[in-house]
Design a protein that fits this description.
The protein is globular, with a radius of gyration of 19 Å. Strands 3-2-1-4-5-7-11 form a 7-stranded parallel beta sheet, sandwiched between helices. A two-stranded parallel ribbon has the order 6-13. The C terminus is likely disordered. It has 2 domains: 203 residues, NAD(P)-binding Rossmann-like Domain (Rossmann fold, 3-Layer(aba) Sandwich); 100 residues. Helices cover 40% and strands 17% of the residues. By secondary structure, it is an alpha/beta fold.
Length: 338
């Protein structure tokens, strides 16, 4: 019996597929893009069996064929357009199609083939303005989405819950914190390019980073912990809720300065400083503090515990960078977006 992962060649998707293969599962990776440089080697070395299908979630017929070809038992739906403001103004229909219609297509295929559980990978962005109004955000915290990305993620999540009730399908939704770690790149579907990845690229190239004067608070979480949580939710025998926050559950202290120092230790040519009147920042992140996402519900229902807080995450991230130098040869950044 196989696990199907949509968006499996993306940032979170590759880490999840690695974790599932390590647990000896058969995995069907569905995406419209190739896996990143270095990932094919990484994935093929693991215990489970991997199948790759280059298909869009908008292609209902091809999705149905894939579900019929493999004995799909679980689905993790992570395919989405993580849009910034420019794309939202330029091509709103495409964002709505992928994030909403794509989700519906996956749900329908899963229903028709008696999939045991569907995990919808949503975003903390679904909380919208509540992320900036509350120091701690719980699953019961009201959602006030404002961007087209946050609106469509919230709507897709609610669509998933509603149809699960109507169709008696086992489905669970997650809201991810601010994910950092391996495999983040510009795939054409991701505009929000993380601060840690921007810095990693500069470090590998031996270039200088100019940081903003103030670090912001974010609900950082390492990609491998996200993969661990998604796997737990896909296979948990009994879940009490339909919605779970997935983050580290902890405030990281000066994470950007800490990451710069860690990078400097491994890439001596890398330099970093804070912006001033003569130097403008070339590393971007939103200037709004974001609340910490509570993960008590996830921990109680699955036994999940983060394995990579800041120090552990940075150590593992650096080790991956050293193992996978080819990744950075194809890596390019996306547009700036909150």
């Amino acid at each position: 019996m196989a696990v199907l992962v949509t968006g499996g060649a993306g940032f979170v998707g590759v880490s999840l597929v690695e974790a599932l293969l390590d647990a000896a599962h058969e995995v069907v990776l569905v995406d419209t893009v190739d896996v990143p440089a270095g990932a094919d080697r990484s994935l093929r070395q693991r215990r489970g069996a991997l199948k790759i299908e280059k298909v869009s979630v908008l292609d209902r017929e091809s999705l149905a064929t894939i579900f019929g070809r493999y004995a799909i038992e679980r689905v993790v739906h992570a395919a989405a357009i993580t849009s910034g403001a420019s794309r939202e103004a330029r091509d709103p229909a495409r964002i709505v199609d992928v994030n909403l219609q794509g989700t519906l297509n996956v749900l329908e295929a899963a229903r028709e083939h008696d999939v045991r559980r569907i995990v919808y990978v949503g975003s903390g962005a679904a909380y919208g303005e509540s992320l900036y109004r509350f120091p701690v955000v719980y699953e019961e915290t009201p959602s006030v989405p404002t961007s087209l990305y946050s609106i469509t993620k919230h709507a897709a999540e609610r669509t998933c819950m509603r149809l699960a009730d109507l169709w008696s399908v086992d489905a669970v939704c997650v809201r991810l914190g601010t994910v950092i770690g391996p495999w983040e790149r510009d795939t054409g579907a991701r505009d929000n390019f993380g601060t840690h990845s921007q810095l990693a690229r500069l470090a590998v190239r031996g270039e200088a980073a100019i940081l903003t004067a103030r670090e912001v608070q974010r609900d950082w979480v390492y990609a491998k912990d996200v993969a661990h949580a998604l796997s737990e939710l896909a296979f948990a025998t009994r879940l009490q809720h339909r919605l779970y926050n997935v983050s580290s559950g902890a405030a990281w202290q000066q994470p950007i300065a800490g990451w710069c120092a860690a990078l400097k230790s491994s890439y001596p040519a890398f330099r970093y400083a804070t912006e001033d009147a003569q130097r403008k920042a070339n590393i971007w992140y939103t200037d709004r503090d974001r609340g910490c996402m509570d993960i008590g519900r996830l921990m109680r229902d699955t036994g999940f515990r983060p394995r990579h807080l800041m120090a552990e995450a940075y150590s593992d991230y650096l080790a991956w960078m050293k193992r996978t130098p080819e990744f950075f040869e194809q890596m390019s950044g996306g547009e700036r977006s909150a």
